[in-house]
């Protein structure tokens, strides 16, 4: 369980940054070098290397250095564990909101009944 949580923490931390999510979207369209990504996101090579490193540690991106060019591509992780965690919590919250809807509807019925008795 601890390893599962550590992986979720690493993945969600990696996905918490807008630039890193943008990098994943870009790599979903095509592989790119660190230089290309840095230019696209208007940042330094060092800054982009740090972002790519975080994504790489989470298993979301892989890199390969050929000569002086480091090419990035989507990693092997498919986010099944993360999707399952999100779905579990979505169902929990959905059930809670459904229960809240029932309470509100019951209160509205009681309020209408009370108002109806008051008019008589």
- The proportion of residues forming helix, as a percent range, comes to over 70%
Mean pLDDT value: 90
- Biggest sheet overview: 3 strands, antiparallel
- Coarse shape: elongated
Helices and strands, in order, run as HHEHHEEH
Low-confidence stretches: none
- DSSP helical segment count: 5
What is the beta-strand fraction? 5-15%
Number of DSSP E strands: 3
- In whole angstroms, the N-to-C terminal distance is 62 Å
User: What's the arrangement of strands in the largest beta sheet?
Assistant: 1-3-2
Fold and architecture overview:
The protein is mainly α and 120 residues long. It contains five helices and three strands. The protein has helices at 2-15, 18-29, 34-40, 45-57, 80-119, and strands spanning 32-33, 61-66, 69-74. Helix 1 packs antiparallel against helix 4 (45-57) and helix 3 packs across helix 4. It is elongated. The mean pLDDT is 90.
Which helices and strands occur, and which strands form pairs?
Layout (H helix, E strand, L loop, with lengths): L1 H14 L2 H12 L2 E2 H7 L4 H13 L3 E6 L2 E6 L5 H40 L1
Antiparallel strand pairs: 1-3, 2-3
Helix pairs in contact: 1-4, 3-4
Characterize this entry briefly.
The chain is mainly alpha-helical and 120 residues long. It has helices at 2-15, 18-29, 34-40, 45-57, 80-119, and strands at 32-33, 61-66, 69-74.
Which descriptors apply to this entry?
three-stranded antiparallel sheet; 120 residues; 5 helices; mainly alpha; single chain
């Amino acid at each position: 369980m601890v390893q599962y949580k550590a992986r979720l923490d690493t993945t969600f931390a990696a996905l918490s940054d807008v630039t890193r999510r943008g990098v994943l979207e870009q790599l979903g369209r095509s592989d790119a070098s660190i230089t290309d990504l840095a230019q696209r996101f208007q940042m330094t090579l060092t800054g982009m290397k740090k972002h790519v490193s975080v994504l790489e540690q989470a298993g979301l991106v892989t890199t390969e250095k050929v000569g002086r060019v480091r090419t990035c591509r989507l990693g092997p992780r498919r986010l099944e564990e993360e999707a399952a965690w999100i779905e579990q919590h979505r169902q929990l919250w959905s059930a809670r909101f459904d229960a809240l809807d029932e309470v509100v509807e019951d209160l509205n019925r009681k309020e209408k009944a009370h108002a109806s008795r008051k008019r008589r």
